[in-house]
Structure formats: structure tokens, C-alpha cells
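Posting this for the archive.
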Amino acid sequence: MHNVFDSALRVAYVGSDLTKSASVPKSNNFDLIRLFAATQVALLHSVNHLGIGFKLSGVTAALGFFPGVPIFFFVSGFLISRSFERNPRVSEFATNRILRIYPALIVCLAVSIFSAAATGYFHTRPVAVRPFIAWLAAQVSVAQFFNPDFLRSYGVGVLNGSLWTISVELQFYVLVPCIYLAMRSCLRDRRSSNAILLSLIIVFMLANRLYIWGAQRHGGSLVFELIGVTFVPWFYMFLVGLLFQRNFERLHRGIRGKFLLLLIVYCLVCWCTRGWLGWMFGNSLNPALFTILGFLMFAAAFSNNNLSDRLLKRNDISYGVYIYHMPVTNFLVVMGMGGSTLGISIAIGMTIALAFASWVLVERPALALKKHPLYQHAPAQS
């Protein structure tokens, strides 16, 4: 199957304008944006589950304007589509995605199991072999959202509930070659490909609104829980990032260097719509707000675009922060660390330490094996 995709896409790409994606600046702030998004999710989850939200209500309210998961989906749409345009070989595309997701995820799974065992949980609740193996298989395949009954009594009841987005992200990866194959006849025509993308965005934006509406009324049903871990409610966010990437040059001319202006505009719009219209934030972010947020993230990526390299030295610990924060939080809940600011300090400190270890020992070596990577994560030259 991948040979069919490769052949069709290579033919479509000959003479197309996709090779112009090389004009996107090599230095950008996407690592910093992803770290912010991961930290936003980690902070809100840790604060809520450790029971100190009332002490930091102002901070959590402000952070709520910048929901991490929608930011991740937008950035993913931008970067993954650009990566595929640069090298549309499906086999290499799949290999690169596997190297990015699974090595760190598998190690995190082992650390999570060890942390639960260290609390003595499995001594008080013996686990049968078959359901344990089934859960492991789900975690290392495509069903990271699955949480078995034998973990319902541990911590907050889900060992690593944030991983549902991994399942969604994997679906995005599968859909990227399909989208480009569907657009192969109009890849040379920017206007036509934009029309297709805008049509898809509208369709999946409506799907998102229907899902949010239905989940508010039937949120406890299995059907809506399963829909929530498919690409359907979230795909428009990914597609908006893809659309921005396809129209990079025009957007870059108009938005670069205007981060502070857009930040002020976005915060004012959020404040007004929350107070006057009661619009939702978090993963249920209103599509109008998400669109403005997309412009803001684009501006952040390409305003003072060496900032990320200067601060992070190309150490991308965002994925580690995201996948480790809930195992750490669960461990602290079981150990009775809730209800104090000390608990949240320990949670964030442990998460960052594990994320950095994951980056140095697992992720960076795995990324070095990628073929034709979009972005080299070797330390930036000073």
C-alpha cells in the first residue's frame, strides 16, 4: 500500500510548489511552544488532582486561556504536514513518527508501572496475567486511552489519562498521506488545495461542536467516550495547522514580529467572550477562539525566532513533560502529598527531571535514527 502512496504522491509533486517549504526558517520557537503547552497541561492536572486548585485559582484561570492540547494539535498539523511535504515517502514518514512516539512512551510505561508497584498497590490488588498483558498491548500499540479495571483504585483512577491524545495523534499521522493523496490533482494550485482544506475544516469543526454539545448531555456514555478518542472531534485543529503551513509565506509576511499585539488581542477576546458569552476553554475551546490562538502560536513561532534555541539549546523535553506528569501526580496522590504547595513543587520538579532524562537517554538517540528529519535536535551552535 505504501508503494501506491509513494508513486502517486511523487508524480503529483513534480513541478508543484511544495518544494518551497524549504523557505520556512530553520530557527523557530516550536520547541518552546510545545514546552509551554505541555507545562500548561501538567500544571493544571497536578494542581487539580493534588487538591490545591483553590490556592492557585487566578493562575489556573489565566492558563485556561491557552489550552495545551489544542496547541499541540495545531503545531502538529503545521510541522507534520511540512515534514511529509519535504519527504512524502510513506515508509520513511511512518518510521520517523514511530521513532518520535514509541521509544519514550514504552520507557514511560515501564517507569509508570514501577512507580505504582513502589507504592505497594499491586500487593493490595493482585492482577491477573491476561488483563495485564491486554493493557500492555494497548499501551504500546494504538489504544493508549484504555484504562483497565485493576487500575481504577490507584491514584486518581487512571494511571496516565493524558495519553488519550497519543491515540488521536497516531490517527492524524495515518490521515496525512490520505489528505495529500486526495489533493494530488490540485497540489500545484494553491487556491484549489486551500478550498479543499477549508471545506474539511468546516466539516470537522461542525463535528467538534456536535461532539461538545452531545458530551455535555451524554458525557458518561461509552459511545461519547469512544468518539472522544477518535480524530473526528479534533481533526479541524490539526487541519488549521496544516492550512497555515500551506500558506506560510503569506502569513509570515503579515504576522511575524506581532506576537505581543496578538497576545493582547487574544486575551481581551477571551476575557470578553468568557464573561459575556460564556464560551468554553480547555479542550472544548470555541473554534473562533482556537483560530485566533492559531494566529497567536504562529506569531510566537516566528517572532524573535531564535529564542527557543537560546533558552533550550534544542533540548526538547516537551514530550517527556507531557507523558510523565500524570504518573508522577498519581504517585504523589497515593503517597499523601496532596493539599499543599509543596506537593505541586515536587510534582513539577520530578516531571521535569524525568522529562530531561527521557530526552537525553531515549528521545534524542531515537530521533538521531530518523531519515531526512525536518529539524535537527543537535545542540545549537553558540
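The chain has a mean pLDDT of 89. Residues 28-367 form one domain.
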